[in-house]
Design brief:
Layout lengths: L1 H21 L4 E2 L8 E8 L5 E4 L2 H13 L1 E7 L8 E7 L4 E7 L4 E4 L2 E7 L4 H7 L2
Antiparallel strand pairs: 1-4, 2-3, 2-5, 4-8, 5-6, 6-7, 7-8
């Protein structure tokens, strides 16, 4: 009986370690259909400016770009301050369906971790130009 409990505990720990390790495999953060997005709110970390994107061509460009980037999870982002762009993406029911922070064309903060672009890059300049 005691031996079985130890085996169960060891197997459970191994499963948790493997599952946690799988979160570091490069993957896409976004699988959103552009036609399901009603708006994107973006706050600029440089000056605090805020814009609301509702133009379909801008939404399509941003969403298609985010969908094309494969990210690899990196170190935790807790206690890090500052950002370039803070995005909130809304569906057609006006509910937030994705929140993320863009730090550069290769780095985002998402769900408490930095994520680095491995395939493709974020069109950072496109978003930056929306504020000009």
């Amino acid at each position: 009986m005691i031996k079985n409990k130890k085996n169960i505990i060891i197997i459970s720990i191994l499963i948790l370690v493997v599952l946690y390790g799988l979160t570091y495999i490069p993957h896409r953060i976004s699988h959103i259909k552009p036609n399901e997005v009603s708006k994107i709110n973006i706050r600029c970390g440089y000056n605090g400016d805020y814009i609301e994107i509702t133009k379909k061509s801008d939404i399509e460009h941003i969403i298609n770009n985010l969908n094309s980037v494969t990210f690899k999870k990196d170190k935790p982002s807790f206690f890090y301050m500052g950002y370039s762009f803070n995005l909130k993406i809304y569906n057609n029911k006006q509910r937030v369906i994705k929140k993320l922070i863009i730090n550069s064309e290769e780095t985002i903060r998402y769900k408490g971790f930095f994520h680095r672009a491995k395939k493709n890059k974020i069109d950072y300049e496109y978003i930056k130009n929306l504020f000009e």
